[in-house]
Amino acid sequence: MTPRVFGEFDIHVREEVAGALDAGHPVVALESTLLAHGLPPGRNREVAGELEAAVRRHGAVPATVAVLDGRVRIGLDGPGLDRVCDPAAGLRKLAELLTAHPELGDDIRTNDRVLVSVGHGIDTVDD
User: Fold this and answer.
1) 1-5 long-range CB contacts below 8 Å, 24 or more apart?
2) What angle do CA 12, 117, 58 make, to 5 degrees?
3) What is the chain's pLDDT, residue by residue, as a tens digit (127 residues)?
């Protein structure tokens, strides 16, 4: 992964995604919650592969977004997708985290702004 700094955030961007962004090629962000919590185990990993293949068929680079090991990751490799899809990995929903720790709300909203900014190609975010 290629670390990039957006404001105060260390975001790890997969090399393929970084190269596509740098070259101005299309990148499609794919949300990881559907894979981690919305589909049954086994089928979720299948769908992850199907989604990424569909994006590639249309000439874009897929970039599944997740927070793993406390770091925002844009573009997961096979083991990253496996982890997101594994119920034993214990990935938590953002809503559950906010309910348990409402004091984190500001930080999480900031992270959302950073992800939106990354999606729009903005290099920094002003708080």
Assistant:
1) 1/73, 1/75
2) 75
3) 556 655 566 788 999 999 999 999 999 999 888 888 889 998 999 999 999 999 999 999 999 988 888 788 899 999 999 999 998 887 776 556 556 655 555 544 444 544 554 444 433 333 3
